[in-house]
Write a structure and sequence with these properties.
Elements (H helix, E strand, L loop, with lengths): L1 E5 L16 E7 L5 H5 L6 H4 L3 E7 L2 H9 L5 E4 L2 H8 L4 E8 L4 E6 L12 E4 L5 H12 L8 E4 L3 H9 L5 E5 L10 E6 H4 L6 E6 H25 L3 H12 L7 H11 L11 H13 L15 H13 L2
Parallel strand pairs: 2-3, 2-4, 7-8, 7-9
Antiparallel strand pairs: 1-3, 4-11, 5-11, 6-9, 6-10
Amino acid sequence: MKKLAALSLCALFGGQALAQERVWRHGVIEPKADAGLIMAGLQGGFPEKFGLKVEILNLKSDVLGLKALLAGELDSYEGGPAGAITADSRGVDVKVIGCAWPRIPHGLFVRADITDIAQLKGKAIAISAPNAFPDLLARAALKKAGVSPDDVTFANLGSDSDRFKALMANVVQASVSSGEFLAVAPPDVKLLFAGRDLMPQFLRNCVMTSGKTIASKRDDAVRFMAAEIAGSRWAVTHKDEVMKITRDAAGIKADDPRPEFVFTESLKYGDFDPEMNVAKDKLAWLQNLLVETADVTKPVDIAKTYDETIRKDAAVLADKIE
């Protein structure tokens, strides 16, 4: 993992110079066309409004985020909550503290001659790391179509962009990738299904931290989430500024239509929740799915997998600076 940037924020909060003392280390998946929505609360001055300095670490997958959190290298990370639920089922104390993406903008892209999931038997599907969100979505889709995961080959190919490029090159015949690639897909590649339609209960991303971090840095956790909420509220009404953040963070050229496409689609379909509510019902649904896929063998009381008091306190704090 490589630290991309430490946001040098030196603001005063409540009359005290806290930014240099309060550091929060947060992991995010490699920036892509939705980076502006994801990053809005992490830059643009929002952390400094709450007396916090945020260090951002770039991650290839949410599985690495969980490992870094448990190793003490991060205070939090944003990614699919499946890993956190699985960890909790094994006695590890990981907590979901907010969910900015309660619906998934991803889907299954395929070669144009494939019209049904059953046709993927004997073919390769690009995912990211095992048990990460793309892997779970692919397995759940296969199960719903009555296709055994043993009948396909799963190719661990990293980021959304890497997976989509592999599909275009015909290295794989299907890829779980962000819907943003609809804006640039060639004629011989199509979206077989949108994840939000096939599985509306599937959570995309939440913010996770550890019980240990909450116990030792709860006030900082509230400040961090307040910055996330304030930045997200701002982002949904400032498209032009968000497009600039996206293009700068992900290195996307001005003529690439993906940032505008994903911004419009995410708000249109409710994929993005600026209030970052803890999606409790969806977490329960996800645990049931993990039981079905045998990733969780000992389900836990779902209330043990989240702490919604941090988000509630953060929302109150965010209200005060708007």
